[in-house]
Amino acid sequence: MKSKEFYMKKAIRQAKKAGEKGEIPIGAVIVKDGEVLSYAFNQRNAKNLATAHAEILAIEKACKKLKDWRLDGAEMYVTLEPCPMCAGAIVNARIKKVYFGAYEKKSGAVFSNYRIPFTSGLNHFTDAEGGILESECSALLKDFFLEKRKV
Questions:
Q1: Closest CA to 25 of 33, 37, 17
Q2: At what angle do helices 54-66 and 4-20 cross, to 10 degrees?
Q3: pLDDT tens digits for 49-73?
Q4: Cα separation of 130 and 141, whole Å?
Q5: What CA–CA distance (Å, rounded) separates 137 from 12?
Q6: At what angle do helices 54-66 and 84-92 cross, to 10 degrees?
């Protein structure tokens, strides 16, 4: 099976696509049994949807591919720690584990502020690990916002 870094690099490629389109550079990839089920990048501006986060779009594509809302046994790789909405969707989709790159100090909902995947009382538990290729993922975001501030 491929390494965590291998799949995170695929998520980083998605994040770069988002940045090229003027979207916040966040990318996500969903993998099951070593096979990539789906990948996506942020498209909130393009779709004019508050919910068009990379994680949500990747979950939707994976569910359509499997013809099931349950993504049991799947893993998600995402370049930034998921927000509360995305962390909730990850748990509800029954994703086995989420790996993320950069920590999100303001709205991170896996470790930084909230611990949604670990909340007792939910119907599913999702494992998590942060800091995968963290410096590369962080640099994408820092560079994007530095460039935005110049304009």
A1: 17
A2: 120
A3: 999 999 999 999 999 999 999 999 9
A4: 16
A5: 7
A6: 20
Just list the catalytic residues: 55
Side chain identity at residue 99, one-letter code? Y
At residue 147, the pLDDT reads 86
User: How many Å apart are CA 136 and CA 16, to the nearest integer?
Assistant: 11
Evaluate if residue 151 carries a pLDDT over 70: no
The per-residue pLDDT of the chain, averaged, comes to 95
Instruction: Kindly tell me the sign of the dihedral angle through the C-alpha atoms of 10, 16, 21, 25.
Output: positive
| pTM: predicted TM-score of the whole model, two decimal places | 0.95
Q: What's the Cα-to-Cα distance from 25 to each of 6, 81, 86, rounded to whole Å?
A: 18, 13, 16
Q: What is the DSSP letter of 102?
A: E
